[in-house]
Amino acid sequence: MVISASTAGQASDLDARIDALKSQIYQHSADVFALQQNVLHPANTKLAVFLTLGTSASLDLDSVELYLDGKPVASHLYTSRELGSLENGGVQQLFTGNLANGEHELKAVVAGQAANDRYVRRESDFRFIKKPGSLSVELNLQAQAPDFEPRVVFREWK
Length: 158
Prior knowledge:
By secondary structure, this protein is of the alpha+beta class. It is 28% helix and 47% strand. It has 2 domains: 1-40; 46-157, Immunoglobulin-like, CATH 2.60.40. The strands form 2 sheets. A 4-stranded mixed β-sheet has the order 4-1-7-8, with no helix packed on it. Strands 3-2-5-6 form a 4-stranded antiparallel β-sheet, with no helix packed on it.
């Protein structure tokens, strides 16, 4: 089968138009996602909670549960791949939601195996006052020598 130059030119022209349409669709999708986030999580009521590891070699993290004002809002079981990412300085977004201004409480329940081979489960509370605007909170897990018992440190990110 022989393809003429004009047929080949039309095919490449069609490919270029398809690529341009795909690019427009990707941009439109990104715009819709951004609008959706603004509607679902307005900046003046937004709360985001992030997990980081302070000392990587001393805690084999199994799971984290997060409660906001006594209600469960996030729960996660960790794979070895996810732990590797966190140990290399990664940050996990545990929760994003809307929160009214005023006093609130976060509670984290952390389960894992400490470096001394003990299975541990720890609960930590963090009371805070939500003010207008977005609020980001870091939940940092630390387990330091000599006992390597995990502890949770909450920090508001500015």
